[in-house]
Amino acid sequence: MIFEINKDQRIVVNASAGGVAIESSNLRERCPYCGSAYCYFSCDQSQHDDKQENEAEVKQRQLYNAAIDGLESLIIALVGVGVASEDKLRLAITEALDAIGNRF
Ligand SMILES: [Zn+2]
Fold it and tell me: Which uninterrupted H or E stretch holds 39?
């Protein structure tokens, strides 16, 4: 299942007999220096430059990405149990992303 949320946000969920998994997702915010969604002041450039992202912004990004982790876990669970149609699931994901975005 491919969920195109908008032109910048997309999540691909692979559901097979072996289970459900996130195949790809670009929902997480990324380090402006190295581009990794899992870099929180880990790359050399981010440690020596606060111009693009300072410590408070890193913390916000970390919290936002933790919320996305939770959302992706819920998506896996919902697809796994077949709770909703793909269209309704896409709508629910969009609304959840809006709700998460409004908190940050
Ligand atoms: Zn980085």
Answer: none
The predicted-structure confidence for 14-35, as pLDDT tens digits, reads as follows 999 889 999 999 999 999 999 9
Residue 27 Cα to ligand 1 middle (Å): 17
- How far apart, in whole angstroms, are the C-alpha atoms of residue 12 and residue 1? 6
- Span from the CA of 44 to the centroid of ligand 1 (angstroms): 7
Q: Are 22 and 13 in contact (CB under 8 A)?
A: yes
> Which pLDDT belongs to residue 24?
95
As a whole number of angstroms, the distance between CA 69 and CA 52 comes to: 24
Going from the Cα of 62 to the center of ligand 1, the distance in angstroms, rounded, reads 12
Residue 7: band (very low, low, confident or very high) from pLDDT cuts 50, 70, 90: very high
Beta bridge partners of 12: 2, 24
Domain assignments of the chain as residue spans, ordered by start: 28-103
CB 81 within 8 A of CB 45: no
Dig out the tokens for 85 from the structure: 């149609």
